[in-house]
Design a protein that fits this description.
Helix content is 8%, strand content 40%. The chain has one domain (6-157): OB fold (Dihydrolipoamide Acetyltransferase, E2P) (Beta Barrel). It has helices spanning 58-67, 121-124; strands at residues 6-12, 17-20, 26-39, 45-57, 73-86, 92-105, 149-150, 156-157. With 173 residues, it is mostly beta strands. A 5-stranded mixed beta barrel has the order 1-3-4-6-5. Strands 7-8 form a two-stranded antiparallel ribbon.
């Protein structure tokens, strides 16, 4: 059995860059920084930052472009992919990316809004009108999390949970 799965929680290092391929598919690229903190042998606190290249396709790309900005906290779940190509100068170029399959948006800063007003969750969801953004009832409004879960095709999916219990498919930040 084989498994290629990466789960990252970090902050965007730049605004998402959305493009459309010649075949008409939507793709978005953005950088994500993750931090690691530990104490070395002498007890000194050490910190290291890793930078990751994230790619999302189709509807998930559109959601990332609409809701994410530089500095946004986000959880990305996906697979690791290595690419190589020949550059214009003739040298081989290599890149390791995380191809996002699911995302969860982190809390927004006080007063920070979305780039486009959303009248209803169905506007952001699939054409079936399923709700895609729910807030956890036990969290105060200033720490409210907006969650968008998507399936493998990048379509938002509704969550089912018992009132008072956090949704089982989300991960708190």
């Amino acid at each position: 059995m084989n498994l290629n799965r990466a789960i990252l929680i970090g902050r965007l290092t730049r605004d998402p860059e959305i493009r459309t391929t010649p075949s008409g598919q939507t793709v978005v690229h953005f950088g994500l920084a993750t931090n690691r903190v530990w104490n070395d042998q002498s007890g000194q606190r050490q910190e290291a930052t890793e930078f990751h290249n994230i790619v999302a396709w189709s509807r998930l790309a559109e959601i990332c472009s609409q809701f994410l900005r530089k500095g946004s906290l986000v959880m990305v779940e996906g697979r690791i992919q290595n690419r190589s190509w020949q550059g214009q100068d003739g040298t081989m170029k290599y890149r390791t990316e995380i191809v996002a399959e699911n995302i969860q948006l982190g809390p927004r800063a006080q007063g920070e809004g979305f780039s486009k007003p959303v009248d209803s969750p169905a506007e952001v969801g699939s054409n079936k009108g399923q709700p895609v953004a729910e807030s956890k009832p036990s969290v105060p409004p200033e720490e409210d999390l907006k969650t968008i879960n998507v399936d493998k095709d990048g379509n938002p999916v509704a969550e089912e949970s018992n009132p008072g219990e956090p949704p089982s498919t989300t991960m708190p930040f």
